[in-house]
Write a structure and sequence with these properties.
The chain has 300 residues and is mostly beta strands. It is 0% helix and 37% strand. The protein has no helices and 22 strands. The strands form 7 sheets. Strands 1-17-16-13 form a 4-stranded antiparallel β-sheet, with no helix packed on it. A 4-stranded antiparallel β-sheet has the order 4-5-9-8, with no helix packed on it. A hairpin with a 5-residue loop joins strand 20 (264-271) and strand 21. It starts with a strand and ends in a 5-residue tail after the last strand. The relative contact order is 0.24.
C-alpha cells in the first residue's frame, strides 16, 4: 500500500538541472551502474529500436556449473521464427515443457520453463533451428544458499517527520538543504534513508535506525516537499533520478528490500511525469536486482 504526495501534480521540470546539495539524509551507497534491457514496448512509451546481436549465442553458456534454478534458455542472434523446437531435460526433474517468447526486433528468443529446475542437477538442452545443425549442450544448476532475513524496522521518529492535516498518513522526513554560492535552482531528487552501520566482524551485517518510511522524494531548493512515494517497510528505494526512455522524460529508481547482509532484493521502476508506473524492470532468470544504479541504455 502506497501513499503518494502530489504537491504540484506533475513533474513538469524534471529536465532542469538537478541540484545535488548537502541534504540531511543519506542513502545506501550504490554500486557501479548495471544496465537493464526493457522487455518489449511499454504501454505508454514507445521503445527505442533494438540492436541485433552480431552472432548466434546461447545462455546459460554451455558448461556453466551454477545456473539459477529459475533460468530461461536464451537463443540470441537468430530470427525467432527459425526456432523449431527446444527440449530441456533435468537429470532429476525430468522433461520441462515451456513457451518460446520472442525478443523485440528479431534479436532472438527465450524458452521459458513452466517450472523451476532442481538445485544441483545437470540439465541438457536440445534445440532445432532452421538452417543450422541441431544444437545440444548441458549446464549445472546451483545449490542456493539461504537468503538472509530482510531489514524490517518500522520505527518512526515523529519529531523528524513532516505532518500534514490533509494527509495524516503521509510522513516524509524533514529535509534540510545547505546552500552554497554555486547552488542550482533545480528540484532535488532523493531517496532518504538512514546511513547503515556496517559490522565487518559479523560478515558485513548492517543495522539501521530509520526516521520513518522511505521512498522516492522530490523537494524544491528550499527543502519543501514536491512529491513523495511513501513505501511501507521493509520496502525501500534508492537511485531516484530523471532519465529518458522512448524519447520521453521519465523518473526511475530501484525499489525493494534490503537484507541484513547488505544486498538488495528488488527491481527497477520507471514512472511517467504524472508519477504513474509504466514499467517494472526485473533481472532475468529468477534473480532479484541488487542495490545498483538503474540506468536505461541508449538501446532501451
Amino acid at each position: 500500500m502506497r501513499s503518494k504526495s502530489r504537491a504540484r501534480g506533475r513533474a513538469t521540470s524534471i529536465n532542469r538541472r538537478i541540484a545535488f546539495l548537502g541534504v540531511a539524509a543519506s542513502a545506501f551507497a550504490a554500486c557501479p551502474a548495471a544496465a537493464l534491457a526493457l522487455p518489449g514496448p511499454a504501454a505508454a512509451l514507445a521503445s527505442p529500436a533494438p540492436r541485433a546481436p552480431s552472432s548466434f549465442t546461447v545462455s546459460p553458456a554451455p558448461g556453466t556449473p551454477d545456473t539459477s534454478p529459475q533460468t530461461q534458455i536464451s537463443l540470441l542472434g537468430i530470427a525467432p521464427r527459425s526456432i523449431e523446437s527446444v527440449q530441456v531435460t533435468g537429470a532429476v526433474s525430468g522433461a520441462h515443457p515451456g513457451t518460446i517468447r520472442a525478443y523485440s526486433g528479431g534479436r532472438g528468443a527465450s524458452f521459458l520453463l513452466d517450472r523451476p529446475l532442481t538445485q544441483g542437477e545437470r540439465v541438457t538442452v536440445r534445440a532445432r533451428i532452421r538452417g543450422r545443425a541441431a544444437l545440444s549442450f548441458s549446464f549445472g544448476v546451483a545449490r542456493l544458499a539461504p537468503t538472509p532475513p530482510v531489514l524490517n524496522i518500522p520505527i518512526f521518529q515523529p519529531a523528524k517527520l513532516d505532518h500534514f492535516v490533509s494527509r495524516p498518513d503521509l510522513l516524509p522526513p524533514q529535509i534540510t538543504v545547505h546552500r552554497s554560492s554555486g547552488a542550482s535552482t533545480g528540484d532535488i531528487f532523493i531517496t532518504p534513508l538512514p546511513s547503515p552501520v556496517v559490522h565487518p566482524e559479523s560478515n558485513n551485517a548492517i543495522t539501521i535506525h530509520p526516521v520513518g518510511p522511505g521512498g522516492p522524494m522530490i523537494i524544491d531548493p528550499s527543502g519543501r516537499l514536491v512529491w513523495f512515494d511513501q513505501l511501507k517497510p521493509p520496502v525501500y528505494a534508492i537511485n531516484f533520478r530523471p532519465q529518458r526512455y522512448g524519447g520521453r522524460e521519465v523518473l526511475t529508481w530501484w525499489q525493494g528490500s534490503v537484507t541484513a547482509s547488505a544486498f538488495g532484493l528488488g527491481a527497477g521502476v520507471i514512472a511517467d511525469t504524472a508519477y504513474g508506473t509504466v514499467r517494472t524492470v526485473k533481472t532475468g532468470n529468477g534473480y532479484p536486482a541488487d542495490l545498483h544504479d538503474f540506468v536505461i541504455t541508449p538501446a532501451g
